[in-house]
Amino acid sequence: MHTDLDTARLLLARLGVRAEELLAEPAPTAPMPLIREYLPRVANAVPVGTRRAYQPYWQRIITAWGERRLDEPTPLEIKQLAEQVKANAVPRRNSRGGRSAAEHLIGALRCLYRHAVNDELIDERDNPALRVAKPRRLASTRRALPAARLAEINEVTATTGNDPELDTLILRLHTETACRRGGALDLRPQDLDETQCLIYLREKGETARWQPVSPTLMTHLLRHAEDRGAPPEGRLLRYTNGQPITTRRYDHLWQRLGRHLPWVATQQVSTHWLRHTTLTFVERNFGYGVARAFAGHEGKSDAGTTTTYIRAELEEVAAALAALTGEPHPLTPLPV
């Protein structure tokens, strides 16, 4: 008997528990929230870009599991839901069998459960989303456009549609800066440094950078903002009625280009191809470091620790732009 008590006392001592604590009432635990109750709280806690990307998938999760507790879905059920989303994905010009939809659904669930772990609603070891692998990403079909093909795109853009001035400005902006759609859509008049021909780009992952543009493009951006009544803190790119453009303008532009240039529709060319085109030119002529800075790739995971030592200066990016456009830039007066 004494041996059993000694063993119990030794065990309690090692666990750091006093015998009196065993007699106390257990602390009440908060009830596990339903998925439909917890998801809106997560949506309000993430950056705007993350919310925009995941919102459609969070809505699908609420539709499927809204009345279930947060700790109920299993890895197998998540895998089944991902396959359903993949099978029912809406076919688009650049569709790849719904793989992206499945990837985004799993990413949306991982975001949800990461917050649940942080809130101590579930243990990290019980996170079901981490035990479901995302679909392997296929190699991109995008590539740099030859000069002749790019000229065709610019010619059709300038001679068709209901607002060629807007569309040519959009293409010139993307060609010169290699910016993403989000960066162009979020550009504001107050982001233009006319003196140094720089624009302030804010893109995905809450990254931001000053990007050189040619004096010609700067002139057209300023004129566009003035003619279409863009307020300093509002979006710069606007329709003739003064309303800011959305991603739908890009969709209509490439659909129109595809009707006039069949190869555009066949190869599913999009705005991101312009980014590939510009960055390929910069990398071939000015090296990886300058291309990386030109693209706005500043993340630690882009290409390992070595990139810390090959960061390009803004003047080097401006020199690459001057070579691309054949136009002097204030940060590097003579074209390279």
UniProtKB/TrEMBL annotation:
Originating species: Crossiella cryophila
Molecular functions per Gene Ontology: DNA binding
Key words of the record: DNA recombination, DNA-binding
Domain Tyr recombinase: 140-322
Similarity comment: family membership: Belongs to the 'phage' integrase family.
GO biological process, one term: DNA integration
Record PANTHER family: INTEGRASE_RECOMBINASE PROTEIN MJ0367-RELATED, PHAGE INTEGRASE-RELATED
PROSITE patterns documented for this protein: TYR_RECOMBINASE
Annotated protein name in UniProt: Site-specific recombinase XerD
Pfam family, one: Phage_integrase
Taxonomic path: Bacteria, Bacillati, Actinomycetota, Actinomycetes, Pseudonocardiales
Domain of life: Bacteria
